[in-house]
Amino acid sequence: MTDFAQVLADGLMNGAIYGLVAAGLSLIWGVMDVINFAHGEFLMAAMYVCYWVGVLIGLDPLISWVLTGAFLFLLSAVSYKVVVRRCIGKSAMAPLLATFGLSIFLKNFCLNMFTPNFRLLSGTFLEGMVFNFFGMAIPAPQLAASLFSLVMLYVLYYFVKRTRTGWAIQATAMDKEAAELMGIDTERIFTLVFGLGGACVGIAGGFMASYLAVFPEVGTLFSLIAFVVVALGGFGSIPGALCAAILIGLVESFAGFYIAPVIKYVAVFALYIVVILIRPKGLFGW
Amino acid sequence: MFAKRLMNGILERRVMLLFALSALILSVVCGSAFAAEEKVIKIGALFPLTGPAAVSGQNCLAAVQTAADIINGKHDFKDFPLAEKEGLLDGYKIEIVPGDHQGKPDVAKSEAERLFNQENVFAIIGSYNSSASKPASAVAERLKKIFMCGASSSAELTERGFNYFFRTAATDAIESKEFVDYIDYLNKNKGAGIKTLGLLYENSEFGKHAAIEGKKAAATIGIEVVADVPFTVGATNMNSEIQKLKSTNPDVVFGAALGSDYSLMARTMKQSNWAPKIFINYCTGYQNPSINKELGSDGNFFMGGMGYSPEIAEVYMKAALPAQEIYRSKTGFPLDSDSIQESVCLHVLAQAIEKAGAADTEKVVNILRSETFPSPLSLSGQVAFSPGGQNNKAFTVITQIVDQKYLTVFPKDYADSELTYPFPAWDKR
User: Fold this and answer.
1) How much is the ipTM here?
2) When you count CB atoms within 10 A of the terminal residue's CB, does the N or C end of chain A come out lower?
């Protein structure tokens, strides 16, 4: 029973974190119809920012997430203005290849700047803190990251659903030309959406650097899982992304423990294939 | 008028032909002159310079370049063959041509083909990941070219009966035997009561073979395998893996996790507040000083097989210390047990070329197969290859990390410390 509870808790925590990583991707994909292949590298960049501000000025991830979020908002918005914007309206492959190029640039930039060394942020406020109850061990850094992910997802959802800018985002996603006719500056909306997508992954990365090693390849598997989360949850749907992420976290955790650890990603991708076959638009897609 | 033009045309053509011929002769003469001046033997260094194992790959490349620097330059290193002489043969220099396989077997194969066919390297040194060494060395074997393998530890590599493949490091079979010898020693002499084994390994050529050898060795002293936990390389988390070990609670765990997986494993164990009585690693992230520096005190009390550490070198491998300083100037870290094997590869190959009197593959291969080479960068001090290419002088000791220092605990002849046993609980440190 303890094992079951532990596996459940691990799955929920990982799922919540996957949710925030995927939310930005989902927003960009849903609103702009652009697949951002550099999403994993944005995560890596955020983790490096968190690591370096931690090492150089001693800022704890509990505070530096603001900085990583803001930095990634800027990086993402600039990437949109400089790279992605030029591909919008061209062939469907153009933004895909452009973001793929961006991902290679970011990865190799960090490889050359920081070497491929694995870097671990030590001495953080939550480091080594573990909550033990009912035989379960809940590490504080992951718990904080997952709880904060849930809060951020709610904030993002509220922003998109309940604010005028959010309505403009939704309108742009539904019909860009009609939105323009209504006076919405869709170019500004696109920049904002790309920036928000970056900010989400930036905040997630800021928290994840407190317990994961930072290195140029760290974002690879996370971005792959984020793609699955988005496709599973439905493009552009934030609640969909959260539900899909939690589902994936649980499948990964239970398959890893009760079948075999090496099967956990097989199970995740198998689930994805099944859902796509039965419901191609995803669980919450429209 | 027509005759004049014709004459001019013929003259112009003659002048042009003269120019062309002169240029051709000049280029051939200059080319051969440069070739004569440029007495180099190209050696390919094929490692994962990017990708998940890039840290180790770049360290391996730096180690090969360190050996090349020693061979090419003139140094007064004591007991270090080829160090005092500048270059090889009658003034040949070693030129290292890097190749990056990114940790991917298919890329390793195509890079090996590029190095041999386009770069015309005499031999390849590599490739760290066993899964990459396997196809890359098959290319060398097909082309009848030498493949010197350093740190790839899959025992299967030297069981293929290849003629041009030579490996300097200990295999996971040799390491597994040393691990169980030590466990047997602890059980008999210290009453350790180690009865059950867990295996935690990456799902790769290296990890799977390490696990097979670990199981075989454990069976020889009657240790029961209670957990067999392979994991995906570059996993986002290791919660299920560690939970699986925790639920079966083996007395000892044999680990085969490289790079970031190693640090993730150590951190997840800490978060789960679980540890076996002892945790012994094959050639993994354990041996990488940069990873252990980042892990800090969380890296303490893990154990592993080592063919080199700065602490061992201070006592048993003093001749290797100057090489370590050259390496440190390139990487900022001391040599480690994996990367030093790549230095050994080049050093032994260079000695064989020197003995052969020319960079002649067949002659060099015959010498590699038949002779014993002095090797100040090896713990045993020697390298000699058995049929199949395994270094039969390969030898490792078992160490334990305490305060980022590798303390030798076994064999007793080499031990400089007592084992901290059992692995202290994470919350009681």
Assistant:
1) 0.85
2) N
